[in-house]
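Regression test case RT-17, inverse folding.

Input:
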């Protein structure tokens, strides 16, 4: 099982996709097909990661253990899924690969494929019994990871396969919140249409609208505003308008005021939005809205 110069040559062949050399080494009888490096990596894991299907096939037919785990917990299936090699994933399944194994973060092959946006692989994994409700140990679900990356095709696939659109991470962060924070407006639109809770707040009291307002993601804000999110004071003591003013985003301020945000609302520190900026254009917008409300 230990590393030898010949074993290292086998790892090199698996990485480069050099089938002839790999066969030569395995057929010599002097290299264990399941030999591991110092991190517990096998040649099958390496070939799976790099997508060399011929080398994968050779190793499996020579008796490589398909479900061995690296020290991190990752398996050949995990690596193939993470890198988007659907042909390798299908082949490993035909020889009994399991979707159950987790790495040290709780990551499974399905979670890895979702995190990196490999829709075809996600489809294959679900077809072979991967659990759509898999979560990392911090609570991040498949749909959360896809939302974070902005992978719309993966999200549509997960939603049509029964994923929970509002499943939060342990700190209360919902998929909609993370998509808003990352500026993925198309993802936000689809999630809202599929029942995402528009005002879901994280444990720190911030909502999707507040995050988008801080960042100035106006496309995201436009999508959220179609679903009438709260424009008032949040439980963390501020409002989306205060956040937008503080960040200096003129267009964001305009959007929120048009949607009915109140320029006379004070935050928990008793400050008006206008007291948080010296930006003339923002102050003009706030004053105009105040006048309009008074009249």
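Golden output:
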């Amino acid at each position: 099982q230990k590393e030898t110069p010949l074993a290292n040559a086998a790892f090199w062949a698996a990485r480069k996709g050099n089938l002839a050399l790999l066969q030569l080494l395995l057929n010599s009888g002097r290299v264990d097909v399941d030999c591991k490096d110092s991190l517990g990596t096998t040649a099958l894991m390496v070939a799976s990661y790099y997508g060399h299907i011929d080398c994968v096939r050779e190793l499996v037919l020579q008796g490589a253990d398909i479900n061995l785990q690296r020290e991190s917990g990752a398996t050949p299936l995990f690596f193939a899924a993470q890198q988007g090699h659907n042909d390798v994933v299908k082949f490993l399944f035909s020889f009994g690969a399991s979707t159950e194994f987790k790495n040290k973060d709780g990551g499974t092959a399905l979670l890895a494929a979702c995190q990196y946006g490999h829709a075809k692989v996600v489809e294959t994994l679900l077809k072979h019994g991967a659990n759509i409700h898999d979560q990392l140990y911090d609570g991040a679900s498949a749909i959360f990871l896809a939302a974070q990356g902005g992978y719309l095709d993966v999200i549509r696939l997960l939603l049509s396969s029964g994923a929970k659109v509002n499943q939060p991470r342990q700190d209360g962060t919902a998929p909609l919140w993370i998509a808003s924070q990352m500026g993925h407006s198309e993802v936000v639109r689809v999630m809202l249409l599929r029942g995402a809770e528009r005002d879901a707040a994280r444990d720190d009291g911030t909502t999707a609208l507040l995050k988008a307002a801080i960042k100035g993601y106006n496309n995201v804000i436009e999508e959220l505003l179609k679903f009438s999110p709260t424009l008032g004071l949040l439980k963390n003591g501020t409002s989306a308008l205060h956040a937008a003013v503080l960040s200096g985003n003129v267009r964001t301020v305009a959007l929120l005021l048009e949607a009915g945000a109140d320029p006379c609302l004070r935050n928990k520190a008793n400050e008006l939005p206008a007291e948080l900026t010296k930006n003339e254009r923002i102050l003009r917008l706030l004053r105009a809205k105040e006048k309009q409300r008074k009249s």
